[in-house]
DNA sequence: GTAGGGTTAG
């Protein structure tokens, strides 16, 4: 090598070293400096070694670019222990414990040191492998390395994962004292967290362990931020919020981190007002807020729906943080995007997102959730495809979003695509797919998912269990839903609500209310949805007195202010029972302006009882409020048709045509041998429909012998009565039931699903059918279930 | 040690 070249290399080396020295955690430009320097090295043919190489690896690691770091590492023939340790530590904290282990065990014993052991022990802990960490600690001792304070700290971190009782905690305490590290704050902090984590195990007495932790804390000669926050977070974890607060109030020093821990505890437990109050108090006491404070408080606002408070915090941040660091900007902007979408302002959330200097998966997922939640499925779909990366949560949001918005098939397809792209579905993803089956009434498919859940060990999952209850109920198998409800290891209010609703929809009104009473007895607090369900049940079962009583108890006993939907249920209840003047009174005196749900309930009630005047009034209000809604026109024309006012029927139809409103076509479907068969009115598409027509005709003769007479008032056009009977006999629900009777094994229950309400004549016909064929026929219509058995229907002709 | 996603019920 000639002298000039050697000098040049030295000059470059000095220059690179100086440039890389500017890279430090506080410098937001670190990563781009490293990239530039690195590119320059490649261009000038400079081969980095030693310090420069290790610095480069270090900066890449600290900037989370592990790919580049590992790439550089692989180019070195014999990396030194510093390079190895840097990468082991980085992989460890990123959760790539496999890669960390690979490097560690490829490191010859001769060059290992305590530091690299420490990094690897931490790696095991990060991967929740407490035993692996302890094993490696033993290896360290066996090979004659001296554990240092970092070693003890990381080993304690691992022990925190596996300790089982107070006795073990005390033994570990003794070992720490014996090791001579009993005065080192960082080691004692780690010991504190062993106690605190053990306290949250369901097998031990948390109060006694927290007391032991408190004793340890009090005996510490020196305490740092971590000691305080460990204690507060410990109390919070164990649900002792008051103790945490007392502890915090006893602090002479006002540490932001400690306050943050308290605020996030409040948020976590749903005490949003308390969180806001603390935020205010921090201002009064002059404790400087940081990004953790902001994110927690914004989360409180988002979850409590305090939109205006959240907006104020946003404005304050914009005013006081003109040049936020990237970390600050990322976390706070994510919290802001979440605030906006949860308050129903997706477009504002998107605005925040668009202006973010850096984004991560959390940001993308927030916007996706926003679109899904707003029912803007098309935008959600394209946003989903645009995403640079996805995680379990992304898939879950999209799968359940599709299911909830009626795209059942697409939802199930996405569930399969998720698996094919290498994501193992979690219980939440299963819940989404199961709900898709519920809407599709795809019982077989739902059962298969249930079986997979059990196989994967998710059978004690609350979310999946609740989804299964709903699925079985919506597929017409209440017994399966009930059985699941009785055997689930944990239940929450959602489970109770789902089960009560299931019983109510299937006509078991008394049982539903019994379950509701049991819920109260078990001290499960009913929420607004519980009451919606209970009121619907009363309405389906015609229980006016009970309905009134429960409605009153809502605000009287449980402090839940009835919303418009609750009033709508009451109107429904009263109208069905023919109590129109009471219903009118309620509409006139209710505290909120009556909207579409109220008038719809009134109209539906009027139709049942043929109350023309009131029905027309309700319909007029609905025409004003939602002129494009097909249901109103259909109900009104039904009303006219029942009393033979065919001129008015024609007028309504013309009105519909003029406004361009189309009636949703009726369709029914049935699952046979894992395949869904769909039928439309007067179907000619289904390949086997002719056989169904023949069978129904044959069945019709037997039914007539038992007294069945086609009820032609359910035909809405004015035509000859023979023709009317023909139209009735081609209704989609009759075809689906006929197909089921033909195809399903003898004696098996026939389960048919219809998008709209069942027609009155079909309802009557199925009663006779169930008697003739001696089988149970279950029909789910747009509103509820009908179980036909021995000539009777579970709805008691009240629907 | 403190934050920023999800799910199920009408």
Automatic annotation (TrEMBL):
UniProt-listed NCBIfam families: PPR
Key words, A-Z: Repeat
Domain DYW: start-end pairs: 707-799
PPR repeats: 113-147, 224-258, 360-390, 391-425, 492-526, 563-597
Keyword check for Repeat: yes
Gene3D superfamilies for the chain: Tetratricopeptide repeat domain
Family annotation (Pfam families): DYW_deaminase (PF14432), E_motif (PF20431), PPR (PF01535), PPR_2 (PF13041)
UniProt similarity note: Belongs to the PPR family. PCMP-H subfamily.
Designated name of the protein: DYW domain-containing protein
Keyword Repeat: yes
């Amino acid at each position: 090598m000639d002298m000039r070249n050697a000098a040049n290399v030295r000059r470059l080396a000095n220059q690179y070293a100086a440039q890389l020295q500017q890279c430090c955690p506080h410098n937001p430009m670190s990563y781009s400096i490293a990239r530039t320097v690195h590119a320059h090295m490649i261009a000038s043919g400079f081969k980095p070694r030693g310090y420069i190489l290790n610095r480069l690896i270090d900066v890449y690691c600290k900037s989370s670019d592990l790919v580049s770091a590992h790439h550089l590492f692989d180019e070195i023939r014999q990396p030194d222990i510093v390079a190895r340790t840097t990468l082991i530590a980085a992989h460890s904290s990123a959760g790539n414990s496999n890669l960390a282990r690979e490097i560690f065990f490829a490191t010859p014993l001769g060059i290992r040191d305590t530091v690299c052991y420490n990094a690897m022990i931490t790696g095991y802990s990060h991967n929740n492998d407490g035993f692996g960490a302890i094993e490696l600690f033993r290896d360290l001792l066996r090979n004659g390395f001296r554990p240092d304070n970092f070693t003890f700290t990381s080993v304690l971190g691992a022990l925190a994962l596996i300790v089982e009782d107070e006795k073990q905690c005390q033994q570990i305490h003794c070992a720490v004292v014996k090791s001579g590290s009993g005065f080192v704050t960082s080691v004692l902090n780690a010991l504190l967290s062993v106690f605190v984590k053990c306290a949250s195990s369901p097998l031990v007495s948390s109060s006694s362990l927290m007391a032991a932790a408190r004793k340890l804390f009090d005996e510490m000669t020196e305490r740092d931020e971590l000691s305080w926050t460990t204690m507060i977070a410990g109390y919070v974890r164990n649900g002792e919020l008051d103790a945490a607060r007392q502890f915090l109030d006893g602090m002479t020093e006002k540490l932001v981190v400690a306050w943050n821990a308290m605020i996030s505890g409040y948020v976590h437990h749903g005490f949003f007002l308390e969180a806001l109050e603390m935020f205010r108090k921090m201002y009064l006491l002059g404790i400087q807020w940081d990004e953790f404070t902001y994110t927690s408080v914004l989360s409180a606002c988002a979850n409590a729906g305090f939109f205006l408070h959240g907006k104020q915090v946003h404005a304050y941040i914009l005013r006081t943080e003109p040049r936020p660091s990237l970390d600050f900007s990322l976390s706070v902007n994510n919290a802001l995007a979440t605030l906006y979408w949860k308050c129903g302002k997706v477009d504002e959330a998107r605005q925040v997102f668009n202006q973010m200097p850096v984004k991560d998966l959390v940001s993308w997922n927030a916007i996706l959730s926003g679109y899904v939640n707003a029912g803007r499925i098309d935008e959600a779909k394209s946003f989903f495809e645009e995403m640079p990366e996805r995680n379990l949560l992304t898939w879950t949001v999209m799968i359940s979003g599709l299911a909830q918005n009626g795209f059942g098939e697409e939802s199930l397809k996405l569930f399969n695509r998720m698996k094919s792209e290498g994501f193992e579905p979690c219980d939440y993803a299963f819940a989404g797919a199961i709900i898709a089956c519920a809407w599709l009434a795809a019982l077989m498919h739902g059962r298969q998912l249930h079986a997979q859940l059990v196989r994967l060990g998710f059978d004690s999952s609350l979310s999946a269990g609740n989804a299964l209850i709903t699925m079985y109920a919506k597929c017409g198998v209440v017994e399966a839903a009930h059985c699941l409800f009785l055997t689930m290891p944990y239940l929450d209010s959602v489970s109770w609500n789902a089960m009560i609703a299931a019983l109510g929809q299937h006509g078991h009104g008394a049982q539903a209310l019994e379950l509701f009473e049991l819920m109260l007895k078990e001290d499960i607090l009913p929420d607004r949805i519980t009451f919606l369900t209970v009121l619907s049940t009363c309405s389906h079962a015609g229980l006016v007195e009970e309905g009134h009583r429960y409605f009153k108890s809502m605000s009287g006993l449980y402090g839940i202010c009835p919303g418009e939907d609750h009033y709508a249920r009451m109107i429904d209840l009263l109208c069905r029972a023919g109590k129109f003047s009471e219903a009118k009174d309620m509409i006139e005196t209710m505290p909120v302006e009556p909207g579409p749900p109220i008038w719809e309930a009134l109209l539906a009630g009027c139709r049942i009882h043929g109350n023309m005047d009131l029905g027309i009034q309700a319909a007029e209000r609905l025409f004003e409020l939602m002129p494009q809604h097909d249901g109103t026109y259909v109900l009104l024309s039904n009303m006219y048709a029942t009393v033979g006012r065919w001129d008015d029927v024609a007028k309504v139809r013309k009105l519909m045509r003029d406004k361009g409103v189309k009636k949703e076509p009726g369709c029914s479907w049935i699952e046979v041998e894992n395949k869904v068969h769909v039928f439309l009115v007067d179907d000619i598409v289904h390949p086997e429909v002719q056989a169904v027509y023949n069978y129904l005709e044959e069945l019709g003769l037997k039914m007539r012998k038992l007294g069945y007479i086609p009820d032609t008032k359910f035909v809405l056009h004015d035509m000859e009565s023979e023709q009317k009977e023909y139209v009735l006999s081609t209704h989609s629900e009759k075809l689906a039931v006929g197909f089921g009777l033909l195809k399903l094994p003898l004696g098996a229950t026939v389960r048919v699903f219809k998008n709209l309400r069942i027609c009155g004549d079909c309802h009557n016909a199925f009663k006779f059918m169930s008697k003739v064929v001696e089988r149970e026929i279950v029909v789910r219509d747009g509103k509820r279930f009908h179980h036909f058995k021995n000539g009777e229907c579970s709805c008691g002709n009240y629907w």
